[in-house]
Amino acid sequence: MLSILDVTTAKRTILNRTSLEKTVIPEKIFDNLEKTFGERIQPSEAVRRILEDIRIHGDNALRSWTKRIDNADIPQPRVSDSKIKASLNEIDPAIRSALEDAAVRIRQFHQKQPVFSWMDQSMGGTLGQLVRPIHRVGFYVPGGTAPLPSTILMSVIPAIVAGVKEIVITTPPRYGSDAIDPAILAAAAIAGVDEIYIAGGAQAIAIMAYGSESITPVDKIVGPGNLFVTLAKQQVFGQVGIDGLAGPTETIVIADETANPKWIAADLLAQAEHDLMATAILITPSETLANNVCAEIDQFLSDIKLKRAEIIRQSLKNRGGAVITKDIAEAITLSNAYAPEHLNLAVKDAWNWIDHITNTGGIFIGEYSCEVMGDYIAGPSHVMPTSGSARFSSPLNVTDFIKIISLVGLNQTTASYLGSQAEIIARAEGLDSHALAAKLRSV
Ligand SMILES: NC(=O)c1ccc[n+]([C@@H]2O[C@H](COP(=O)([O-])OP(=O)(O)OC[C@H]3O[C@@H](n4cnc5c(N)ncnc54)[C@H](O)[C@@H]3O)[C@@H](O)[C@H]2O)c1
Ligand SMILES: N[C@H](CO)Cc1c[nH]c[nH+]1
Ligand SMILES: [Zn+2]
Question: Which annotated residues bind Zn(2+) (predicted)?
Answer without folding.
Answer: 271, 274, 375, 434
